[in-house]
Amino acid sequence: MIGRQLKTLLNKEKIDINKFSQIVGIKIRTLYSWTADERNPDCETLIQIVNKYYELTRKRINIDWLLSSEGSMFLSSNDLKRAQNNIAISPEITGRHYQDIQEVNGYTDTQMAQILKISDKRYRELSLGKDFPNIAEQNNTKLNFNVDMDWFLYGEAGQKSPGTIDNQLSGASLPQLTPEQYAKLIKLLDQQ
């Protein structure tokens, strides 16, 4: 997915991959592996690309578009003003947002891990702000909880954030079980 989006960006902006490599400070071979969908950048590298591209072109790439092709390629001037106030990201921000999502939906750590298709340990690392979510984890978060990635990564207020009346999360569909029942079910499934 990222590879296709990067190719679209390069074509629309009429930039060859060598020039883009210089602009964002990423090795050309690495960019080729991304555009061929052989590898995906980590979260910190994506943010580096977005920030460096903005520094040189004054166009802020929309993270939602880059990850999922949703929305416009670049943030609008209003979104850009909000983003400039929250330019720094940290694992603590995404961790806090995982906790917000979990609280709004009333899920346990185990349920969140199941929805995101990661281990309980990995979910705890993410929700405690000890690490950034990788691309697959970001995509699972976006798909399962309908969150805006700019909000999720930058802490933007007023965008599909959990708990707002007009932007309720869709959440993932889980059976109506108590956390204890759900944990037993997971154990049974793991034994098979």
Entry keywords:
12 helices; mainly alpha; elongated; 192 residues; 434 Repressor (Amino-terminal Domain)
Break the fold down into its secondary structure elements and pairings:
Blueprint: H1 2-13, H2 17-24, H3 28-35, H4 43-57, H5 63-68, H6 77-85, H7 91-105, H8 109-116, H9 120-127, H10 135-145, H11 149-154, H12 179-191
Helix pairs in contact: 8-9
N-to-C order of helices and strands: HHHHHHHHHHHH
Tell me the number of helical segments per DSSP (H or I, 4 or more residues long): 12
Q: Tell me, what is the CATH class of the largest domain?
A: Mainly Alpha
Overall 3D shape: elongated
CATH architectural group of the largest domain? Orthogonal Bundle
Number of strands: 0
- The low-pLDDT segments are 156-161, 163-176
Secondary structure: helix percent: 55-70%
- Gap between N and C termini, in Å? 33 Å
| Classification by helices and strands | mainly alpha
Number of domains: 2
Alpha-carbon Rg, integer: 18 Å
Largest sheet: none
Mean pLDDT: 77
CATH topology of the largest domain: 434 Repressor (Amino-terminal Domain)
CATH homologous superfamily assignment of the largest domain: lambda repressor-like DNA-binding domains
Beta-strand percentage? under 5%
